[in-house]
Design brief:
With about 500 residues, the protein is of the alpha+beta class. It contains 26 helices and 12 strands. It is globular and about 85 Å long.
Length: about 500
């Protein structure tokens, strides 16, 4: 067994040693395995701990959770795999307990990739830098050194097709190459991915979108034959030509939009022209905003990248050429939004995550259409934008910038980009103008009903919205102004007995 330096954080070593002491107190042998060993040998920080134990993993995990104030989650009853979630040092630590399948060497041989098929016995306590003996039956250390992702066996993907997605993720995340034989295996077995539960495919797809260079990951999935079985709706986007202002076809443009989403969101390691970056609003408040969660399965940034991939998904069926030879895609945002709902449900995303992506797709053209051309928006246009696109208003502005950059590609004219981004920047500034975006309420529905002698009904909401918009653009400022406006607008409505459209008059 080779002796290697394992580099981990002091906080991680504390948690590992706590788990090791617990197993020892139960007379159970345990090993540090999988990604924890891999990342430790590479010096990459992690909050995940993978343990292989010679005993009842579910029982041990539950007892460890109870003893340390953690949460217990059974992951696989049949194969005895469970997770304990601990909170310590301001971090969340995930400790997976898995019962060994056979002896240790047999267990390691059943794993996915050689760089994940190494183990360290938990006999001695670990520190930040420990010289450890690595159990390495499949030469994982050699593959780490040569930066190679190599499968452990010829049947590794047949037993668990989701591992094919993991191969792509690890390759991009670590900057490693797929071993040629492993790439060939994936291409042969790619069709098997549809057998995997939607939840597991979703989880791995989410992890792929979370890491930088997601566009590279998507291209790799496509090259290996994995992308279209997961999202067959993207097939029709290939080779669909676009108007001259677009550099790429629909499919390539969609993938490039994912790349430029990472550009505009300042993802580490993703760079482009300084002339492009300096036109985009970025500050600590914006950065903090994009770190806020939307749902439980994937981050806000990951969802925006997913929406970027999907935003033109309905262009193929909406493409038409008019009598002058001009190309149009009428209605593609709305039709695309409908398709997104089915895709997100199929992949088992939550309702909140589905609504988030659906809205980004439905309104992805909206920022560029405010006031038309390259004029700065009016206060009314800014108000209506935030009203209609809530709660994705800010996310949408950044995705729209990415869409614009991906449309022009190498043909980007920097002066035109400055004018376009100025309009989007002006719209973004609206969030700092609460009187425009969310004006303080002058009157409520009860005030309108009392003043106009109405009962509850749609007309009350319509009048409230009219008042709110007039207030946002500065036409009214007082309660009296609001009541007077509501009365004027109401007087224009159809009289009772005509077409009341929901009027409820006392």
């Amino acid at each position: 067994m080779p002796v290697k330096a394992l580099k981990i954080s002091s906080e991680l070593s504390t948690v590992i040693n706590k788990a090791a002491a617990f197993l020892s107190s139960r007379g159970v042998s345990g090993y540090l395995v999988g990604g924890t060993v891999r990342d430790g040998l590479l010096g990459i920080r992690t909050h995940d701990i993978d343990l292989a134990v010679e005993g009842p993993a579910l029982t041990l995990a539950r007892e460890f959770a109870d003893a340390n104030g953690g949460a217990f989650v059974a992951l696989n009853d049949e194969h005895q795999v469970a997770r304990v979630i601990l909170h310590a040092d301001g971090r969340e630590w995930r400790i997976d307990f898995a019962a060994m399948q056979g002896n240790l060497l047999e267990d390691l041989s059943r794993r996915d990739f050689t760089i994940n098929a190494m183990a360290i016995s938990l006999v001695e306590p670990l520190s930040e830098i420990s010289q450890v003996q690595v159990i390495d039956p499949l030469n994982g250390i050699a593959d780490l050194t040569s930066k190679k992702i190599r499968s452990c066996s010829d049947t590794v993907f047949q037993s668990d097709p989701v591992r094919m997605l993991r191969a792509v993720r690890l390759s991009v995340k670590l900057g490693f190459m797929l071993d040629p034989s492993t790439s060939k295996q994936i291409k042969v077995d790619a069709h098997l991915i549809i057998r995997s539960p939607g939840e597991r495919v979703r989880d791995e797809l989410a992890r792929i979108l979370e890491i930088p260079k997601a566009a590279s990951s998507i291209r790799a999935l496509d090259k290996l034959g994995l992308l279209l079985p997961i999202i067959p709706e993207l097939k029709d986007a290939k080779d669909v030509q676009q108007p001259p202002e677009h550099y790429w076809d629909v499919f390539e443009h969609s993938v490039e939009t994912v790349f430029f989403t990472e550009v505009v969101l300042r993802i580490p390691g993703i760079t482009t022209s300084a002339n492009v970056i300096r036109e985009i609003v970025w500050n600590p408040e914006v950065e903090a905003y994009f770190q806020t969660p939307v749902g439980a399965e994937i981050s806000r940034i990951g969802l925006i990248k997913l929406a970027a991939l999907f935003h033109d998904i309905a262009k193929p069926e909406t493409k038409m050429v008019d009598e002058k030879g001009k190309m149009h895609f009428y209605g593609h945002p709305e039709q695309g939004a409908e398709k997104i709902i089915a895709i997100m449900r199929r992949l088992r995303f939550s309702g909140k995550e589905t609504e988030f992506v659906e809205k980004l797709v439905k309104y992805h053209l909206r920022p560029g259409l405010i006031n038309g051309n390259l004029e700065l928006p009016t206060r009314r246009a800014v108000y209506r934008y935030y009203r209609d696109t809530k709660p994705v208003s800010i996310d949408l502005l950044y995705m729209n910038l990415a869409d614009y950059l991906a449309a022009r590609g190498p043909l980007l004219e920097i002066e035109e980009w400055k004018r376009y981004s100025a309009k989007v920047r002006y719209t973004f500034a609206g969030i700092d103008e609460p009187k425009v975006v969310t004006p303080e309420r002058l009157i409520d529905g009860n005030s309108i009903m009392q003043s106009l002698n109405l009962t509850p009904g749609p007309i009350v909401g319509e009048l409230l919205e009219t008042v709110r918009e007039a207030q946002a653009v500065g036409k009214i400022k007082t309660r009296e102004d609001a009541i007077a406006l509501a009365k004027r607008e109401f007087s224009k409505k159809p009289a009772p007995g005509a077409d009341n459209s929901g009027l409820n008059i006392k």
